Amino acid sequence: MAKVAIDLKIIESARDIHSKIMRRQKPTMNMPVRSLGNVRYTPTVGYFQLGQGQKTRTLTVGTVKTFAQTLKMMSLSKELILADDMATKREAYYISKNWGQAAFTEQPESDTVMDDVEAMFGVNREQLRFVPEEKGGDVAGRLVVLDRDAKGRQLKIDCARFGSGSYSIPIDVEHLDFQSQAKFILAIETAGAFQRLLKYDYWDKTNCILISLGGVPTRACRRFIRRLSDKLRIPVYAFVDGDPYGICNIYRTLKVGSGNAAHLNQYFCVPQASYLGVTPQDIIDYKLPTHPLKQVDIKRAKDALKNDPFIKHHKPWQLAIQQMLDLGQRVEQQAFAKHGLEFVVKKYLPDKLKNPSKFLP
Amino acid sequence: MAKVAIDLKIIESARDIHSKIMRRQKPTMNMPVRSLGNVRYTPTVGYFQLGQGQKTRTLTVGTVKTFAQTLKMMSLSKELILADDMATKREAYYISKNWGQAAFTEQPESDTVMDDVEAMFGVNREQLRFVPEEKGGDVAGRLVVLDRDAKGRQLKIDCARFGSGSYSIPIDVEHLDFQSQAKFILAIETAGAFQRLLKYDYWDKTNCILISLGGVPTRACRRFIRRLSDKLRIPVYAFVDGDPYGICNIYRTLKVGSGNAAHLNQYFCVPQASYLGVTPQDIIDYKLPTHPLKQVDIKRAKDALKNDPFIKHHKPWQLAIQQMLDLGQRVEQQAFAKHGLEFVVKKYLPDKLKNPSKFLP
Fold first, then answer.
1. Rounded to the nearest 10 degrees, how much is the dihedral formed by the CA atoms of A201, A203, A207, A212?
2. How far is the alpha carbon of B79 from chain A, nearest alpha carbon, in Å?
3. B338–A95 C-beta distance less than 8 A
4. N or C: which end of chain A has fewer CB within 10 A?
5. Contact yes or no for B273/B255 (Cβ under 8 A)
């Protein structure tokens, strides 16, 4: 959606409320219900979608403060768009301290209203010019990122020329463009494993783009990978720890999004991702050192089998998670070091990349 | 210390043990005691130093496993140096899985032995070729980082040309060199505040280098700032949240190091750092929105006044922390947004930078 369009949509929405008040009617705002109960998963769509559930916020004595806060948040968004500026979630909270009685007391309150506005207009927070606090991930490999400097001149950022360092993804990525002839994107859970592949020049040898997720990927990181893979039309392979957290939190969030932010998933998930490893079967095939599953792991795995629409849809995932529970073991992506530091780049990854069609979905 | 020297030191130490065994004597290893009780602070030195306390590890029936593990860890370090490779702490742990009965059961065990080896040889872990898991911080501004690609060709990484993105510091920084005419380094606690200064092109207007710490700075980030500031001979100003965590954890660790890793502080602290803000006095001078101190904040502040050798040495810090306790308030670095998003770059930072000599020590 273009910059002008959102701006106009906010103004239109405010005018509607204004005219209702002038006609002495009760103004209302409609927004989707944001919860796991209002979510559906269709594999052809590829991400958790919002259902039909709507909530209506009507101006009454009881809702007057939230109503005013929502309008002030919309107004702030409009100002940011016009000024070509942005505000972090925390900054938006502090700005509200000048809103008199509409000031927020705690940041979670302002975050909730921000989510409502976002869902109401059906656009993502970055398009409203609100950005999260956390930074994105790190990138190295066969990729040129196109950005602009403060004077508007184009910058070509060559991610093949960072040596042992890397390109750090900004917290807002909507304005970036990309040039690349890479064959695939490898999304890596830990900074340690990322650095290992960097050290062995892995992206140069295999013509790929390495992205360090740093745990559960931030919004900026997921959006970066999504836009990158859409633009380049290349697959995304996830290389994470073989435990319920790596599968059900890191990978699942990357691929189909999360339940409590379903209004965002269409922008922030990466449906074209597949799961390279580490799989429970790899523990056996590669004789990997493991750790026993903890209680929290077992609970998370059983919950996923029972309640997660993504896992429940994919038989191969149910089998893999059941295998993990049967083994009673979890495995980390650096466990390959047992066979020598080069094993992961000389044996494991080449083995796997011969058959990407066998990756878990 | 040169590459060859550490290598030879390891061999020499191993030969000594070997010859003792051949002569049927009990071999021993000496290493410093690593604890807050064995630390001293001298402001002219500028960081927490290890005291004289030593512990001796003698080969007996009870110590045979740890003794063997220490020798295997020294051997791994030697191999890594000769191969010009490195291993993360977690990789080193997994490599030990091939050491038969000397294998570690949990990673904290291997980390402890690694710390012992490090303290024994009086060098830092990176020189032994062991690197932490976590990545460093992010950098933008008037700085060219010199690194090499996998083929040994020099790379000039210009941190002024990354647009809204930035340079991500690698987990090992010993090999990097720097070129810059910048006047100072601004070390920033949060990614959000870093992005704000980037957005307003702050480094270009003030000729400085911006570094995002991302909370308590990692070893790599602290070492990067230290080497940078040593090489360029420019000051480091810390801009962090005005709360006991920002002062006593983030800033104190950056400047003088920490107690439980005192054998490292000579490499990883930044004695030339000073504290720009946010100070408790700023709350009053700039009418900033605050949050009440939590119980954990009060405890941390009182502990610092009573036990922290750094705080106890510096009267201005005692007054500032007492003022914070009297106000009963903490303040975040993004609180300036209350006065408008540009306030921090147009008013607060310029005000402060007129008198760096007034910064807290």
1. 180
2. 12
3. yes
4. N
5. yes
With tokens 């946010």, the residue in question is: B278
Q: How many A×B Cβ pairs under 8 Å?
A: 173
8 Å CB contact of B165 and A169:
yes
Residue in A133, A147, A191 nearest the CB of B135: A191
For A338, the closest of B86, B95, B170 (CB atoms) is B95
Sequence-separated (6 or more) residues with CB below 8 Å from residue B285 = none
Region of poorest pLDDT, from A7-16, A249-258, B118-127: B118-127
Cβ of A131 and B164 within 8 Å? no
For the stretch A289-299, pLDDT in tens is 999 999 999 99
Enclosing H/E stretch for B120 = helix B107-121
Q: Structure tokens of A84? A: 């070509």
On whether the CB atoms of residues B29 and B57 are closer than 8 A, the answer is: yes
pLDDT-derived band at A113 (thresholds 50, 70, 90) equals: very high
pLDDT digits (tens, 9 = 90+) for A115-174: 889 888 888 888 888 887 777 799 999 999 999 988 889 999 999 999 999 999 998 898
> What does the alpha-carbon distance between residue A63 and residue A29 come to, in Å, rounded to a whole number?
11
Any idea what DSSP says for residue A360? Answer: B
Q: DSSP label at A194?
A: H
Q: A216 in the Ramachandran plot: left (φ > 0), alpha (ψ -120 to 50) or beta?
A: beta
Q: Compute the Cα dihedral for A252, A255, A261, A263 and give only its sign.
A: negative
Q: Does residue B2 surpass a pLDDT of 70?
A: no
φ, ψ of residue B177 in degrees (nearest 5): -130, 170
From the list B138, B163, B335, the residue facing A147 with the nearest CB is: B163
CA–CA separation, B244 vs B73, rounded Å?
38
Amino acid identity for residue A320 in this structure: A
Q: The tokens 């002038």 sit on which residue?
A: A22
Contact yes or no for A157 and B134 at CB 8 A: no
The overall longest dimension of chain B from CA atoms, in Å, is 76
Asked if A94 is an active-site residue, the reply is yes
The alpha-helical segments, DSSP class H, found in chain A are 3-22, 64-82, 89-95, 107-121, 191-199, 202-206, 219-232, 244, 252-256, 265-268, 280-285, 295-307, 309-313, 315-327, 343, 349-353
Minimal C-alpha gap between A77 and chain B (Å)? 13
> pTM score, two decimals?
0.87
B59 pLDDT more than 90: no
User: How far is Cα A104 from Cα A96, in angstroms, rounded to an integer?
Assistant: 6
Q: Which two tokens stand for residue B239?
A: 């801009």
Q: Residue A282: which residues within 8 A CB-CB, separation 6 or more?
A: A242, A288, A331, A348
Tokens of B70: 């220490």
Which of B297, B106, B194, B318 is CA-nearest to residue A134?
B194
B315: amino acid identity, one letter: K
Task: Give the closest residue to A240 by CA, choosing from A177, A292, A203, A193.
Answer: A193
Distance between CA atoms of A50 and A353, rounded to whole angstroms? 35
